[in-house]
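User: Reviewer 2 asked us to show a designed sequence for the structure in our supplementary figure. I'm pasting the structure tokens here. Could you produce the per-position amino acids so we can include them in the response letter?
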């Protein structure tokens, strides 16, 4: 039997036996057909229904509490090997301003880390947080401040 030059052409063959394709599980270990997933409400509108039907499996996540976000930051810092990189006050501030969303927390922390690296800061603190994430002052606020 001649091997095809298709998908497996670049992989070495370690056996001469033929594979029984009926025993290969492809994505559904029980081999029971799944019902179509129910799209979130925003994909049920007439305009977005075609898009919602193309989105595969979904994992709906619940918002995390600020305490869970703090635990995550402590874990991430310890795993990275530098627990002292962020002050406790900064961790509290980040978890309070992350909108209970782990992605937002990670993006804010990444921006803080990048800025601290550019400015060669030894530790990330609340002052850096407010420098980066405070809205710019308007002209009237500048006048009132003086």
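Assistant: Here is a per-position design you can include in the supplement:
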């Amino acid at each position: 039997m001649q091997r095809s030059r298709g998908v497996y052409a670049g992989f070495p063959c370690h056996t001469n036996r033929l594979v029984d394709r009926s025993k290969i599980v492809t994505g559904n270990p029980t081999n029971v057909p799944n019902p179509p997933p129910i799209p979130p409400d925003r994909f049920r509108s007439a305009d977005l229904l075609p898009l919602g039907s193309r989105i595969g499996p979904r994992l709906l996540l619940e918002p995390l509490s600020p305490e869970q976000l703090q635990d995550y930051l402590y874990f991430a810092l310890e795993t990275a090997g530098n627990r002292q990189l962020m002050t406790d006050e900064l961790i509290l501030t980040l978890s309070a301003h992350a909108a209970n969303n782990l992605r937002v927390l990670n993006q804010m922390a990444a921006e803080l880390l990048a800025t601290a690296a550019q400015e060669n800061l030894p530790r990330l603190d609340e002052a850096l947080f407010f420098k980066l994430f405070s809205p710019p002052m308007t002209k009237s606020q500048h006048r009132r401040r003086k």
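For the response letter, you might also mention the following. Residues 3-32 have pLDDT under 50 and may be disordered. Residues 3 and 15 are 12 Å apart (CA to CA).
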